[in-house]
């Protein structure tokens, strides 16, 4: 009898660990490392949100709460869905968890049975396939290629649906590409889903507020109200409000599903941090004024990075609609040899050599299910971005 659960055999260790461990080792050796791997804003949580948390502590709001959220936060979430997405939800249709991650995990745990398939557009956020596997389901990947702006088409979605499909997992703007689906692009997908009533939609709207230029965010239940009864709309405060460490995410959907998710949470973590819940009430109900200047800064950084990377020989970098990532192709670098003598046989070899030879840490595309690419998070200072892009350029110019 083995001690560890067979469940763990289904999931792989995080493929990003090799690069991050190597980056940490090099830093410890005194090397000058620029990390472009972090999936979080580099600015601080706004003061009004911090103040709400401090007030909660002073007011003694430091005890257990209802398993899936305090009524005040559920109310704020309902108001948010009405205000931003024109979606009507009652508090009984809302679940609050320890980050968007727990909410997604609860939903899979509450619904997947062996043999159930979950359609995941690739490239995808690293945790999706493994969460599905942990839940006993089967991930089915549909490739969104660079030529189509990393988005999937209605025909691709149609072709991927089988009688076993339980969920279609949607993420726009996307981690890792920043790609955002327009209303019409999303409507083409929801049109397909209408034809298959057994398929539910899990939409991860984590980057909703990080939408740039003429791109306007939209979400499936808003685009196609007839999907409302089989859509779980997931969101959270981590990214837009710079609250990654506070660990509050939420979802709204059919009451029976929310109840099942509550059951999972009640036997694992119970309520998310009480103080963070009060901070999230302020994040959602308080001023949203900082979103615009933050987005202006992100747009400037996006353009800086996209222009600089497109100037590097062998790199092709689309300009994404949102989030704080770019996902350039390095097709023309593969098979070549770096200045330091490393054969770049795939994107992992590229990222490893880039780190070893220039000190720039990026995450290789295989981790997200589409190669050969790498992901850059531009949620860091202009100075670091300019220096990192200059080093990437020197690296590419040195390829033989
Ligand atoms: N969904 C996506 C697409 C993400 O990129 C992330 C975080 O990186 C999450 C969900 C998880 O968010 P949270 O930190 O709220 O758990």
Automatic annotation (TrEMBL):
<dbReference type="GO" id="GO:0030170">
    <property type="term" value="F:pyridoxal phosphate binding"/>
</dbReference>
<keyword id="KW-0032">Aminotransferase</keyword>
<dbReference type="InterPro" id="IPR015424">
    <property type="entry name" value="PyrdxlP-dep_Trfase"/>
</dbReference>
<dbReference type="InterPro" id="IPR015422">
    <property type="entry name" value="PyrdxlP-dep_Trfase_small"/>
</dbReference>
<dbReference type="InterPro" id="IPR050596">
    <property type="entry name" value="AspAT/PAT-like"/>
</dbReference>
<dbReference type="Pfam" id="PF00155">
    <property type="entry name" value="Aminotran_1_2"/>
</dbReference>
<keyword id="KW-0663">Pyridoxal phosphate</keyword>
<dbReference type="InterPro" id="IPR004839">
    <property type="entry name" value="Aminotransferase_I/II_large"/>
</dbReference>
<comment type="subunit">
    <text>Homodimer.</text>
</comment>
<protein>
    <recommendedName>
        <fullName>Aminotransferase</fullName>
        <ecNumber>2.6.1.-</ecNumber>
    </recommendedName>
</protein>
<dbReference type="InterPro" id="IPR004838">
    <property type="entry name" value="NHTrfase_class1_PyrdxlP-BS"/>
</dbReference>
<dbReference type="GO" id="GO:0004069">
    <property type="term" value="F:L-aspartate:2-oxoglutarate aminotransferase activity"/>
</dbReference>
<dbReference type="InterPro" id="IPR015421">
    <property type="entry name" value="PyrdxlP-dep_Trfase_major"/>
</dbReference>
<comment type="similarity">
    <text>Belongs to the class-I pyridoxal-phosphate-dependent aminotransferase family.</text>
</comment>
<keyword id="KW-0808">Transferase</keyword>
<dbReference type="GO" id="GO:0006520">
    <property type="term" value="P:amino acid metabolic process"/>
</dbReference>
<feature type="domain" description="Aminotransferase class I/classII large">
    <location>
        <begin position="32"/>
        <end position="392"/>
    </location>
</feature>
């Amino acid at each position: 009898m083995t001690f560890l659960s067979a469940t763990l055999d289904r999931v792989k260790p995080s493929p990003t660990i090799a690069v991050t461990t190597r980056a940490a080792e090099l830093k410890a050796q005194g090397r000058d490392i620029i990390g472009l791997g972090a999936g979080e804003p580099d600015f601080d949580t706004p003061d009004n949100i911090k103040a709400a948390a401090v007030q909660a502590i002073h007011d003694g709001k430091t005890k257990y709460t209802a398993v899936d959220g305090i009524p005040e936060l559920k109310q704020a979430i309902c108001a948010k869905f009405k205000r931003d997405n024109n979606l009507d939800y009652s508090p009984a249709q809302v679940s609050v968890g320890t980050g968007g991650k727990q909410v997604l995990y609860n939903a899979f745990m509450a619904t997947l049975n062996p043999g159930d398939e979950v359609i995941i557009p690739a490239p995808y956020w690293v945790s999706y396939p493994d969460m599905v596997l942990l839940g006993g389901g089967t991930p089915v990947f549909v490739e969104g290629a660079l030529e189509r702006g990393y988005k999937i088409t209605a025909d691709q979605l149609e072709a991927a649906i089988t009688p076993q499909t339980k969920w279609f997992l949607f993420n726009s703007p996307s981690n890792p590409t920043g790609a955002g689906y327009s209303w019409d692009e999303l409507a083409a997908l929801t049109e397909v889903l209408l034809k298959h009533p057994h398929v539910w939609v899990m939409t991860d709207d984590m980057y909703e507020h990080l939408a740039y230029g003429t791109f306007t965010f939209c979400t499936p239940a808003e685009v196609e109200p007839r999907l409302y009864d089989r859509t779980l709309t997931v969101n959270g405060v981590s990214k837009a409000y710079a609250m990654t460490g506070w660990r509050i995410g939420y979802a709204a959907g059919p009451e029976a599903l929310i109840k099942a998710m509550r059951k999972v949470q009640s036997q694992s973590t119970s309520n998310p941090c009480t103080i963070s819940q009060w901070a999230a009430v302020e994040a959602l109900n308080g001023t949203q004024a900082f979103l615009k200047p933050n987005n202006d800064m992100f747009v400037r950084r996006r353009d800086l990075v996209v222009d600089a990377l497109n100037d590097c020989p062998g790199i092709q970098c689309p300009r994404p609609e949102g989030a704080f990532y770019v996902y350039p192709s390095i097709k023309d670098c593969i098979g070549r040899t770096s200045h330091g003598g490393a054969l770049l046989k795939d994107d992992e070899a590229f990222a490893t050599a880039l780190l070893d030879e220039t000190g720039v840490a990026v995450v290789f595309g295989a981790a997200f299910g589409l190669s050969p690419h790498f992901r850059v998070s531009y949620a860091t200072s202009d100075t670091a971005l300019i220096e990192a892009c200059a080093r990437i350029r020197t690296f590419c110019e040195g390829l033989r």
